Amino acid sequence: MSKIRDLANTIIGALAIVVVLRSFAFATYHIPSESMVPTLEVGDRVAAVKFPYGYSRFSLVGGDYLPRFPGETGRIPAAMPARGNVAVFRHPVSGEDFIKRVVGLPGDRVAIREGRVWLNGAAVPLAESGHWTYRDPSGAIVAVTAYRETLPGAEPHTILLRDRRSPMSDMAEAIVPEGRLFMLGDNRDNSSDSRFSSMGFVPVENLIGRADAILYSFASCAGEAGLRCAPRRMLERVE
């Protein structure tokens, strides 16, 4: 009986450590779609650190069933992300975990004209940087133009645009409400994000963590009978 008790205590202790780490330190997430290409590719496993944004009930394992934390943002402490951060958050409609780039902060005026983001009346710098190809869910190869976008106060990052005159490339100016964020995918023609009513502005409370590293990837695969996959990159900082 003592051996069984010791084994049970070891298992319970290990589970408790995992829950604490996943709630307060970091958690890992799998990238299932092309919405953040080229920053993140399908098959990437990213680590999202929790402490930079403080903690809300969505930060904690099983926290969906907890009451909202006190304060205007529902976070302790009430930390705010920076423009350009790649963040994991709880989708305000579907309740799924999503990952997008923070583009607009509370009070910002955001518009999109021919694929270019405008913030507070000024165009965000956008410079063509070549071409990119990727495989869409149907297996077809998609060719798009790559651009370097530089949000205020952030390092440049690469986005993809297939057609700067498509309906997805324009959005009337809107003001980001208090306690909300405007989120965009880097693959602008293939991302469900804050441009659409299916997501809308994301509550700051719904932030889970900042995506800081790609732990490994199975995006590059080859083989016939079985896929043989190798990591694409290890512990690369996500700007």
Automatic annotation (TrEMBL):
Compartments, as annotated in UniProt: Membrane
Protein topology in the membrane: Single-pass type II membrane protein
Pfam families registered for this protein in UniProt: Peptidase_S26
Any one biological process term the GO annotation gives: signal peptide processing
A single GO cellular-component term on record: membrane
Domain (Peptidase S26) ranges: 5-215
GO molecular function: serine-type endopeptidase activity; signal peptidase activity
Active site annotation, chain numbering: S35, K100
Its EC number(s): 3.4.21.89
Keyword Protein biosynthesis on entry: no
Record Gene3D superfamilies: Umud Fragment, subunit A
Keywords recorded for this protein, A-Z: Hydrolase, Protease
Catalytic activity: Cleavage of hydrophobic, N-terminal signal or leader sequences from secreted and periplasmic proteins
First-tier enzyme category under EC: hydrolase
Family statement: Belongs to the peptidase S26 family.
PANTHER family, per the entry: CHLOROPLAST PROCESSING PEPTIDASE, SIGNAL PEPTIDASE I
Protein name, as recorded: Signal peptidase I
Source organism per UniProt: Phreatobacter stygius
